[in-house]
Recover the amino acids of this structure.
């Protein structure tokens, strides 16, 4: 058939309607239509923030050490946000990420797991965290895709249940990690860059490739942009939705490993309010909350903005409350900027 | 009822309504008397919906006057029309499904004291209205979403009557009703008119018009072609003659002319779905275009979606190329080479915020996959080839689908299935929202596709399109096929007769 | 240690320091082996209390005590309930009814209502929110039930027969005074502070006490951040703080639970030029102080045994007994516990009563 299409040669009548022909898109505009243009508002916000940081914090802000601190601080929530980007582009939402991180961290640091980690290899703990978190994601996906429960409700239920389970397993105690191999491996640097930052970078790159260069990513856009159209085009929407939640679950597992490494503990109090931080980062990163549109680059910048904000406020010895206000203002300003630019670039095309 | 000296409740003269590029109404005259049932007839696109919208205050006419009980009036908003006493019962019933019957009836003018809804008053007045409409069995406290279509319609009417209504407009009220329900609806209408309420009744079913109507006005191409015809006695042939014959003639490509005798490519055998259609059998050969004609609610879109696997049939079977399709599975149908261009292009087919490339390759992603990766250059090349073949304009594969015109959007959907290499193409209203120029182009494309060996099944509410484009025509009425024959041997008025009355004239 | 304690008490002027006395009267009960659950403050003044067994220990009429506390979502809070249960188990004449810990004020109110209907003799309550539980506590008092208010104070004096409070301000003072001892001779010393949840009055009290005590020797807090009592928040706050202050002399962290995260951040940053003081007094921290191989050199105790004191007090009041070392015939209205500083020198004394986080 694909051969026969060639025989359907251009047989239509000559062009009609003036609105059908549009001017060619110039090179500059093409750049603006790319990911740089889409995230221009964000890049601007980030640059402003950096300037504020340099002016108020001086050397303490601009140092290599502080940059690495910012990156390290942002890396855990960053990894979760990458996963969240997929789910939101796919038209869903997951409120259980924080609870999932807590559960995975607790499960991977129980005495039994740690003993196994000690005896065999610490990788057992890593595998355990990722496995547990992925299973939680799969359950979320099942509830949403096959149970037809609204994502908001299904993952809200999971939020409560997963944290409850984490509390039971940990008996509400903080589980301290004694496996030296684990702590040494994740606490170390590679060429001066902390391992955690490298993990964030690797997850971001994989996320970018997955979203922009694979059939999985394309289907994600389709499912989130118009689920009915995707279904009628023969895409298995339910199965894809399931995978999206499982993917987010696995990033939660990675995040759990990272938080374990950062705090030397597993605890049912880990990951508090991650759902809000991740959703906020994703949304100011330009991802449409209704699905179908979004970028990994935007999410990464979104995460950096929030982490940097926190850092700058602490450098200047300002209160948490003032920081919350600034956070709110930044969300609104970044989204407004984003919309303005998006509207203009759409008007251009 | 109409007395010796009929009072002119509402008179419209010379109404013109312009839309960009179209004269939707081009001089409509209509007068409605108190206590009569005035039927409005006309084919799709004749301007009935626009006329209703003008009368209910949703659209402003560009020319012409409306008189209400002898006084010239303007209807700048729907509220202004409601205040005069004009109520409209829309096809898609505009009820709030999650509220109760009583709450829906009083919506917008809830009885209240000090800001508190008076629920008891609300309920008693609802009960009275439902009783007046002959449906006391509908409980005012039941939730509207749980009612059947007929019940919802009654609630809509009760809502209209809860204000002082003098003219009630009903847009195809029988489309969603079964026969018993239609009979009861007529009782209600008779009761209303006996109380001096005028009714504008829109339907395609002539037997209904004969049963309930007093006078008939026929619209064609935005003009009144006849008004004040007696509903009971005007011969069907005359009515259909008035409705048919277009001013705008489309150029249909010549049919293949061949006889289709070999093995059919698509074979549908006795499929049924409760309350939608029953025992539908037909087949489509390679190279053949089969057109499916029928009214809204006759089951035509449902049949298409069932063949496609988007709905599951209760009984029967569908096979492509001699192989039975897995029931209710879209991926199975797509895999077997079936493609659907759905009715709601924007809602069901397109990713509006994605590029043309993404839209075209959506069903064929696997072909461009290298492991998990997408070979984007190859993908873009293939999509570009298709959109060049179909002459999508502008020929920019990176442009968002949203920015294309209706005709070009339709071509993008077609390109998707061309690229997929499908053998059976199901087209649901392929020219809806497509402007006149682009239509002929689409017609030519569809015919080209067929001659390359594709089996095409076409649904359209425009009878000339079904006849002009198809090799064979099926006519549906109430979920059953009432006619199956070569397109050359049937004309527009015969199809209309079948659709409207169940017999060719 | 004793001299410092005495000085502190007088300097600050919080003097209902009856805790030592309560302990003296009630804690040396039947089994001295189980003194693991004994009041931390007991040990602080154990010399005074030693061997002071009195008639109060003899079993009296049966006392039914209802107990309600917030959810044990934190090491300290978990220890509260456990210590209360252990204390009650020591008495043959006490029946303790423990309601499921909750952070839902509504649920806690209904728990108290159930106790009232159940006609218990006394209620020992650590309210999630003192003001919100005042009403129902007053009702219980009106119904003739002895209400003992623990840790978070009611907004009305009629809501409880007796109140036992930890001393948040005093914690700050203790920590600040310790800092003064270390750095009082260096007016340029950089003192940093990692607070708990900033919106809570207890955090504000601790910070105020800290600042006031520092002011006494001419020091101020140079860098202050707030965390949320969780390990993760502690790590985050500390990581930023360490960037903000390239050189620190003394660091006070309000809470030993979040302190686990703080220590992780310090370790990651490779900093060891300062002295860190903890808060609340978890066993982990005490062990670290004992080992003396980290920056953690001290912690300030916020007794996790105060609800256990509440049980003692409830039993005493219902049975018509009083603090026998005092002249008064009735038990006191209010008891404010002492917040001692634990260092390497005295850690062995406190470790047995510390809570596991």
């Amino acid at each position: 058939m694909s051969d026969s299409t060639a025989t359907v040669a251009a047989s239509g009548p000559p062009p009609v309607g003036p609105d059908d022909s549009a001017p060619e898109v110039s090179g500059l505009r093409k750049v603006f239509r790319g990911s740089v243009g889409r995230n221009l508002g964000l890049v601007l916000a980030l640059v402003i923030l950096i300037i504020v940081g340099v002016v108020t914090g001086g050397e303490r802000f601009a140092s290599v050490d502080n940059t690495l601190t910012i990156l390290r601080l942002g890396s855990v929530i960053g990894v979760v946000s990458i996963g969240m980007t997929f789910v939101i582009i796919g038209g869903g939402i997951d409120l259980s990420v924080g609870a999932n991180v807590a559960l995975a961290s607790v499960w991977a640091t129980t005495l039994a797991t740690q003993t196994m980690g000690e005896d065999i290899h610490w990788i057992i703990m890593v595998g355990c965290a990722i496995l547990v978190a992925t299973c939680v994601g799969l359950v979320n996906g099942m509830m949403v895709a096959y149970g037809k429960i609204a994502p908001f409700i299904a993952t809200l239920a999971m939020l409560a249940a997963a944290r409850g389970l984490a509390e039971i397993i940990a008996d509400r105690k903080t589980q301290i990690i004694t496996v030296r191999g684990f702590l040494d491996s994740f606490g170390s640097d590679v060429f001066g860059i902390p391992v955690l930052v490298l993990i964030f970078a690797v997850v971001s790159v994989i996320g970018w490739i997955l979203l922009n260069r694979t059939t999985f990513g394309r289907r994600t856009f389709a499912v989130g942009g118009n689920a009915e159209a995707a279904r009628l085009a023969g895409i298995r929407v339910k199965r894809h939705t399931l995978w999206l939640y499982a993917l987010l679950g696995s990033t939660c597992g990675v995040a759990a490993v990272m938080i374990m490494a950062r705090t030397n503990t597993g605890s049912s109090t880990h990951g508090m309010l991650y759902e809000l931080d991740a959703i906020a980062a994703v949304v100011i990163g330009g991802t449409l909350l209704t699905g179908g549109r979004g970028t990994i680059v935007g999410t990464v910048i979104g995460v950096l903005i929030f982490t940097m904000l926190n850092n700058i406020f602490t450098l200047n010895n300002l209160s948490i409350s003032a920081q919350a206000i600034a956070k709110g203002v930044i969300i609104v300003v970044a989204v407004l900027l984003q919309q303005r630019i998006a509207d203009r670039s759409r008007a251009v095309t | 009822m109409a007395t010796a000296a009929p009072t002119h409740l509402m008179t419209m003269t010379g109404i013109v309504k312009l839309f960009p590029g179209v004269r939707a109404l081009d001089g409509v005259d209509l007068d409605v008397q108190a206590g009569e049932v005035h039927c409005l007839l006309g084919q799709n696109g004749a301007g009935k919906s626009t006329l209703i919208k003008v009368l209910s205050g949703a659209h402003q006419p560009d020319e012409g006057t409306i008189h209400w009980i002898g006084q010239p009036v303007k209807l700048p908003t729907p509220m202004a029309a409601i205040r005069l006493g004009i109520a409209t019962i829309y096809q898609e019933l505009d009820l709030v499904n999650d509220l109760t019957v009583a709450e829906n009836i009083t919506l917008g003018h809830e009885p209240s004291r000090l800001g508190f809804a008076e629920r008891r008053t609300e309920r008693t007045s609802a009960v009275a209205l439902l009783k007046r409409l002959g449906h006391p069995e509908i409980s005012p406290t039941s939730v509207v979403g749980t009612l059947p279509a007929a019940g919802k319609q009654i609630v809509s009417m009760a809502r209209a009557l809860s204000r002082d209504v003098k003219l009630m407009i009903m847009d195809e009220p029988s489309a969603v009703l079964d026969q018993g329900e239609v009979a009861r609806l007529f009782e209600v209408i008779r009761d209303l008119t006996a109380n001096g309420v005028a009714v504008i009744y829109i339907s395609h079913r002539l037997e209904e018009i004969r049963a309930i109507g007093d006078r008939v006005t026929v619209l064609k191409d935005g003009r009144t072609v006849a008004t004040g015809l007696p509903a009971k006695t005007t011969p069907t042939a005359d009515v259909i003659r008035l409705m048919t014959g277009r001013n705008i003639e489309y150029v249909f490509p010549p049919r293949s002319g061949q006889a289709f005798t070999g093995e059919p490519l698509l074979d549908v055998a006795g499929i049924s779905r409760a309350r939608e259609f029953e025992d539908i059998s037909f087949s489509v050969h390679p190279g053949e275009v089969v057109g499916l004609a029928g009214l809204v609610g006759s089951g035509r879109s449902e049949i298409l979606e069932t063949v496609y696997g988007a709905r599951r049939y209760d009984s029967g079977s569908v096979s492509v190329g001699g192989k039975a399709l897995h029931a209710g599975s879209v991926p199975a149908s797509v895999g077997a080479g079936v493609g659907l261009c759905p009715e709601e292009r924007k809602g069901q087919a397109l990713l509006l915020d994605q590029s043309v490339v993404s839209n075209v390759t959506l069903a064929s992603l696997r072909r461009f996959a290298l492991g998990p990766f997408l070979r984007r250059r190859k993908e873009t090349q293939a999509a570009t080839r298709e959109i060049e073949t179909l002459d999508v304009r502008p020929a920019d594969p990176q442009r968002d689908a949203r920015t294309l015109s209706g005709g070009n959007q339709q071509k993008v959907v077609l390109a998707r299935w061309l690229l997929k290499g499908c053998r059976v193409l199901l087209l649901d209203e392929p020219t809806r929202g497509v402007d006149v120029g682009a239509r002929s182009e689409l017609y030519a494309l569809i015919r080209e596709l067929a001659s390359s060996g594709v089996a095409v099944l076409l649904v359209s509410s425009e009878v000339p399109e079904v006849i002009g484009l198809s090799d064979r025509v099926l006519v549906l009425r109430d979920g059953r096929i009432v006619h199956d024959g070569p397109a050359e041997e049937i004309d527009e008025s015969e199809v209309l007769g079948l659709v409207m009355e169940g017999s060719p004239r | 240690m004793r001299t410092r304690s005495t000085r502190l008490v007088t300097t600050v002027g919080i003097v209902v320091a009856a805790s030592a006395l309560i302990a003296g009267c009630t804690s040396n009960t039947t089994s001295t082996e189980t003194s693991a659950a004994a009041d931390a403050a007991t040990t602080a003044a154990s010399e005074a209390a030693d061997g002071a067994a009195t008639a109060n220990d003899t079993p009296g009429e049966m006392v039914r005590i209802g107990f309600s506390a917030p959810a044990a979502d934190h090491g300290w809070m978990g220890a509260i309930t456990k210590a209360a249960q252990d204390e009650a188990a020591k008495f043959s004449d006490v029946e303790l009814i423990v309601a499921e810990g909750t952070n839902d004020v509504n649920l806690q109110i209904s728990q108290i209502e159930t106790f009232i209907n159940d006609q218990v003799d006394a209620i020992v309550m650590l309210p999630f929110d003192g003001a919100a539980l005042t009403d129902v506590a007053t009702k219980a008092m009106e119904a003739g039930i002895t209400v003992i208010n623990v840790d978070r104070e009611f907004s009305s004096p009629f809501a409880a027969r007796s109140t036992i409070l930890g001393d948040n301000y005093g914690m700050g003072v203790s920590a600040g005074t310790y800092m003064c001892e270390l750095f009082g001779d260096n007016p340029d010393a950089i003192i940093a502070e990692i607070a708990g949840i900033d919106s809570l009055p207890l955090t504000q009290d601790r910070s105020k006490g800290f600042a006031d005590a520092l002011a006494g020797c001419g020091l101020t807090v140079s860098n202050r951040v707030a965390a949320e009592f969780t390990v993760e928040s502690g790590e985050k706050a500390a990581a930023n703080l360490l960037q903000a202050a390239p050189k620190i002399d003394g660091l006070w962290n309000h809470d030993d639970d979040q302190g686990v995260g703080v220590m992780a951040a310090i370790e990651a940053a490779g900093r060891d030029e300062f002295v860190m003081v903890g808060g609340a007094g978890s066993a982990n921290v005490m062990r670290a102080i004992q080992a003396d191989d980290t920056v953690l050199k001290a912690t300030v105790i916020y007794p996790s045994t105060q609800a256990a004191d509440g049980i003692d007090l409830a039993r005493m009041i219902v049975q018509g007994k009083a603090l026998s070392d005092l002249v008064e015939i009735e038990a006191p209205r209010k008891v404010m516990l002492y917040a001692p500083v634990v260092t390497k020198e005295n850690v062995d004394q406190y470790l047995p009563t510390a809570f596991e986080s």
User: Anything to note?
Assistant: Residues 94 and 239 of chain C are 48 Å apart (CA to CA). Chain C has two domains: 18-167+304-337, 168-301.
